[in-house]
Amino acid sequence: MATEDGRTWARALGAWQPAAGYRVFRRLLGALWAAAAVRFVANGWVAEQYLDPDVHFPWIDGLTVPSPTVMYALFAVQAVAGLLVAADRWPRRAAAAWWVAFVWVELLDRTWYLNHYVLLSVLGALVVAVPVRAHGGARWVPAWGLALLKAQVALVYLWAGLAKLNADWLVRGEPLHTWLASRMDWPVVGPWLARPELAVGMSWGGMLYDLAVPFLLLLPRTRPVAYGLVVGFHVVTGLLFPIGVFPWVMVLASTLFLPADWPVRHRGTARAVDPPPPHRLSGAGLAGVVLVGVLMAGMPVRHVLYGPDVNWTEQGFRLSWRVLLIEKTGFVTFTAEERTTGRRWTVEPRDDLTPVQHQQMRTQPDLIAQYARHIARGFAARGHDVAVYADAWAALNGRPTQRLIRPDVDLTQPWWDRHQQGWIVPRGQQLLRDAARAESPSPAR
User: Fold this and answer.
1) What is the dihedral sign for C-alpha 309, 311, 316, 322?
2) Which helix (DSSP H) or strand (DSSP E) does residue 17 occupy?
3) pLDDT recorded at residue 306
């Protein structure tokens, strides 16, 4: 029975569907890739984010920023490859070139992490993998390719909605209230934006939208209304919040839920052409599709391996579609202590980092630890073997500031050793200790 089920799935996923809608999606995605690369260079962000800073936070230890020539060449590759995809010329090869150049840049510094960069990377990888076949004067795309693309877009919505099921979002309306209140000087609508009940209402609306819209897009009856919601929702969020091209990526990606032949159907030029015979998806091919689906669905839930409070610890926060959930402020200084002599130095990171790098690093524990290792390497180059400790404090979504990192844990240790020592102070623990000290009776004099 299991074998027959597997064959049924293989036949269904191996069927061919009209490629008209997918090709429009792919061409517009290529245009977006090219425009984003040109915009990045035109705004001077290549120098600002990669060439000018002295310190970086690479995703892979040892990965360094290449020369200016190579950096600008990587963006040129992105622009040219995007234009080739938009023109439908060698689209899979061009997409592969774009993907290598784009991911290379993104791996150089995690302080510039954005959810839509991850989504673009995943969509780009799928565009490389999904073939388009000509047959009977028409173009066709395999069902498994469209299924993976739709699944990825749906998972972004679903995980974003599930992540909003918390008291900060649904009860306190945070961090929306903080962000909207900062726009209270806008004419006419400003005073309304500062009202806390508006933030709570918008929070509930955002949660319900994220959880419902994938299913509404899947159902033919509700699909037109759902796509209208997608456009309206992302236009509003794009105007209210500085989240780059993410709204437009989602508007484009949601077209994948439209009928596969929607461009020719709506023009009245669709022809009755029989698709190619289904290609046999081998056992290995079926397993590969299932594995990719499992990875896409399971990656966002890996934070449960680290503990329950992912918004505070941010362990497992990235690559998880946790969108617009936190507003953190904080400060941190470091102490380097020589292991043999006990000699100590205080290190101020703002002297070494750009304002954006410093803003990101001081509230994210893994970046704090990564910078501590950078400090240790600097001292090692001068002949000092040091342990590095952090005096780090942060506030989450308008709460009181509390200690973020245990000040007695050497951050140059491997991650597992730090984890075993409970190096991140649980949210509320330091506050409870301070309250207990304040309420304890004073000693008799």
Assistant:
1) positive
2) strand 16-18
3) 84
Structure tokens belonging to residue 49: 């984010």
Please give the DSSP secondary-structure letter assigned to residue 442: P
What is the rounded distance in angstroms from the CA atom of residue 409 to the CA atom of residue 404? 12
Tokens of 394: 């942060």
**If DSSP codes are grouped into helix, strand and coil, which group holds residue 337?**
strand
C-alpha 305/C-alpha 302 separation (Å) is 6
The rounded Cα 68 to chain-centroid distance in angstroms is 26
Give this prediction's pTM.
0.89
**Strand ranges, E, within 262-385:** 328-338, 344-347
Phi/psi class of residue 353: alpha, beta or left (left: φ > 0; alpha: ψ in -120 to 50)? Answer: beta
C-alpha 126/C-alpha 216 separation (Å) is: 23
Token output for 315: 């362990």
Burial class of residue 92 in the structure, from the number of CB atoms within 10 Å of its CB (0-12 exposed, 13-18 middle, 19+ buried): middle
The secondary structure of 190-214 as a DSSP string is HHHHT-HHHHHHHHHHHHHHHHHHH
Structure confidence by residue, pLDDT tens digits, 86-108: 999 999 999 999 999 999 999 99
On whether the CB atoms of residues 271 and 285 are closer than 8 A, the answer is no
* Structural contact between residues 214 and 158, judged by C-beta atoms closer than 8 angstroms: yes
User: 138-142 and 328-338 as β-strands: parallel, antiparallel, unpaired?
Assistant: unpaired
d(CA 355, CA 357): 6
Neighbours of 184 (CB within 10 A): 13
Contact between 368 and 332 (Cβ < 8 Å): yes
User: 333: helix, coil or strand?
Assistant: strand
Q: What is the largest CA-CA distance in the chain?
A: 97
Q: Are 192 and 183 in contact (CB under 8 A)?
A: no
DSSP class of residue 425 equals P
203 neighbors 164 (Cβ within 8 angstroms): yes
CA-CA-CA-CA dihedral for 141, 144, 146, 150, to nearest 10: 180
- When pLDDT is averaged across residues 184-200 and rounded to a whole number, the result is 79
Question: What pLDDT, in 10s, does the model give residues 244-286?
Answer: 888 999 999 999 999 999 988 755 555 567 787 777 666 676 6
> From its phi and psi, is residue 413 left (phi > 0), alpha (psi between -120 and 50) or beta?
beta
Q: How far apart are CA 174 and CA 359, in angstroms?
A: 20
| Dihedral sign for Cα atoms in the order 78, 84, 90, 95 | positive
Amino acid at the residue 359: Q
Can you tell me the distance from the alpha carbon of 292 to that of 297, in angstroms, rounded to the nearest whole number? 9
